[in-house]
Amino acid sequence: MKATPYHHGALRDALLTAAETILRRDGLLALTLRAAAREAGVSHAAPGYHFGDLPGLLTELAAMGLRRLSAQLRDIKSSPERRVWDAARAYLAFARANPALFQLMFQSDRLQMESPSLLEARTEAMQQLALTRGIEDASPTLAQLGYVTGGWAIVHGFAMLLLDGRLTPLLAGMPPGSTPEDLFEAMLASAEKGLIGYS
Amino acid sequence: MKATPYHHGALRDALLTAAETILRRDGLLALTLRAAAREAGVSHAAPGYHFGDLPGLLTELAAMGLRRLSAQLRDIKSSPERRVWDAARAYLAFARANPALFQLMFQSDRLQMESPSLLEARTEAMQQLALTRGIEDASPTLAQLGYVTGGWAIVHGFAMLLLDGRLTPLLAGMPPGSTPEDLFEAMLASAEKGLIGYS
DNA sequence: TCGCCAATCTTTACGTTGTCTAGATAGGCT
DNA sequence: AGCCTATCTAGACAACGTAAAGATTGGCGA
């Protein structure tokens, strides 16, 4: 048994965790095929064998993130009327806990959109979303579609704006010690009453 | 007068328009310093002189996009009660007309966040946003902050999800011939009534 | 009008990356 | 025991960002 055996044995998984380590520590721009290989302690071309190319690796990472998000949404055990709120909070919590991964999950120009594993993870997350909103119809009405879309868009938009640092000026106008979650709750309360024409 | 004079004369602006051409034609990943130089017909290191590095060029592009968006929001001449709707539509229209540029504008890891021109363009756009929502207070209340954030987030989130292709399954469930704008209108109508607890 | 200066652009060079190719290794099946 | 195939390494090449040094020229002062 050598220090570094020629065959790793579980290199594919090791590369995925190495890639996520880099993603969390150094950001998306630092996540390269060669960096993942260095982090895993293998040759620079090893990731190419398992993932084909860089979009292939990023796609598997994104699919992994989507599956984790779906699981966290599925594990919500609230009552139906509280479930929507808790799902929104879980969505934001995931984005805050995995900022770079979350942004990668919604950066389609770096992903292989036709990848089966990504497509499967996407539809799974989509079903969780519709289920949370209490819509199981095969052919929903236009109002239902607008309702589902609105709930997703407002939560997703908040997460995106927050991760991009665009809400910092707004957060600066809040009482000292306020967290982004406080602004999030205020936004949800506003959305419950009606978001337009309120002032 | 030679075919290609040594000094371009207005190379900085030419590089910016060349960069936007590439952005629109080939996407963000194809926009490199050398590609912009090729498009403008100058040496590959010329952009480095005017913009320092690649984030410098992208930052100027993003600032340009923000200024254009601000101008389009400012040009809205609707009545106060219709202004919110028209601003939302203008926001989406800008994102649809300039997809790659819009995504670049909200991709802070590729931009120089401390750039004065970017900061100025940002605060200008921010003021247009607050003005559209009818809030001019120096110290807004928490409810007002939640209200402004919600309006921004739902429109921004819709644009992001749409540009990322995430709404295509939802659009597939709509009547044939429906446009993304139709779903957008349905979402706004839903947001007006109240976005949570409707079902 | 002459000459110099500084802004502008080119050339050259180096390290890093993605990706392709050929080769090395070894686990497992017959 | 031997081979087959999956797995990993080594090497190479083009494209990229970026730095340094050189070339060009418009314009300003004497």
UniProtKB/TrEMBL annotation, chains A, B:
InterPro entries: Homeodomain-like_sf, HTH-type_TetR-like_transc_reg, HTH_TetR, MT1864/Rv1816-like_C, Tet_transcr_reg_TetR-rel_C_sf. Residues 32-51 bind DNA. Residues 9-69 form the HTH tetR-type domain. Keywords: DNA-binding, Transcription, Transcription regulation. The keyword Lipid biosynthesis does not apply. SUPFAM superfamilies: Homeodomain-like (SSF46689), Tetracyclin repressor-like, C-terminal domain (SSF48498). This is AcrR family transcriptional regulator. It comes from Dyella japonica.
